[in-house]
Design goal:
Shape: globular
Helix content: 25-40%
Order of helices and strands: EEEHEHEHEHEEHHEH
CATH superfamily: Spore Coat Polysaccharide Biosynthesis Protein SpsA, Chain A
Structural class: alpha/beta
CATH class: Alpha Beta
Strand content: 15-25%
Radius of gyration: 16 Å
Strand order of the largest sheet: 5-4-1-6-8-7-9
CATH topology: Spore Coat Polysaccharide Biosynthesis Protein SpsA, Chain A
Largest sheet: 7 strands, mixed
CATH architecture: Alpha-Beta Complex
Oligomer: single chain
Distance between the termini: 39 Å
């Protein structure tokens, strides 16, 4: 195995950032992280999976800060106005993270692999790239990423230009793909009440 530009990265050097800052349009305007799945908010499922995998946890939320605070983790709101998407959450988390890396994931993806962070670390360590992004075997999953906080100024400049598209920013950086082709279900998002109900029925059967 060849050495990459990154030294060995420990889990303690990674802050997990749960992205819960969207408008939830397809959920009828509901705050998706607080929508129940099996009688627990979606974000509770994500926290249960990610807390053991990272040195610290931040929740990026632009609404219902008090409700999110009840989960016991620091809440970080976007520093940019008008819900500018996941990159705004990335840069806001980078600004306060106490670790050299952040790993991101959405609040509406409850099927997080137990080795999610380690796989992302492995992909970055084995590469000569700056960022690791998950790939489900068919396409990339851009909001599942491992990034050094040292890219904050570059990301701020990108957003200041008026750009919001996450794939466009990635195209300007050096990106390693983390292979999750063996578990594409890990990236199943709950965007609508119907999708939530369907997953509940499937899990009840199994």
């Amino acid at each position: 195995m060849s050495e990459g530009i990154h030294d060995r990265i420990s889990l303690d050097e990674v802050t997990a950032v749960i992205l819960a800052g969207g408008r939830g349009r397809r959920m009828g305007g509901m705050d998706k992280g607080l929508v129940d799945l099996e009688k627990r908010p979606l974000i509770a499922h994500v926290l249960n999976a990610i807390v053991p995998q990272a040195g610290s946890v931040l929740i990026n939320a632009n609404r219902n800060a008090e409700k999110y605070r009840e989960f016991g983790y620091r809440i970080v709101s976007d520093t940019l106005d008008d819900y500018q998407g996941p990159l705004a959450g990335f840069v806001s988390a980078m600004a306060v993270a106490s670790t050299p890396y952040i790993v991101t994931l959405p609040c509406d993806g409850p099927l997080v692999p137990t080795d999610y962070v380690q796989r992302m670390i492995n992909a970055l360590e084995m590469s000569e790239n700056e960022i690791a992004v998950a790939h489900d075997g068919d396409r990339i999953q851009p909001v599942y990423a491992l990034l050094p906080v040292g890219l904050m100024s570059d990301l701020e400049a990108f957003l200041a230009e008026g750009d919001r598209k996450i794939n466009l920013w990635y195209s300007r950086r050096h990106v390693a793909l983390a292979d999750f082709s063996d578990c594409p279900e890990a990236f199943r998002n709950i965007n609508t009440p119907g999708e939530r109900d369907r997953l509940q029925r499937e899990r009840a059967i199994t």
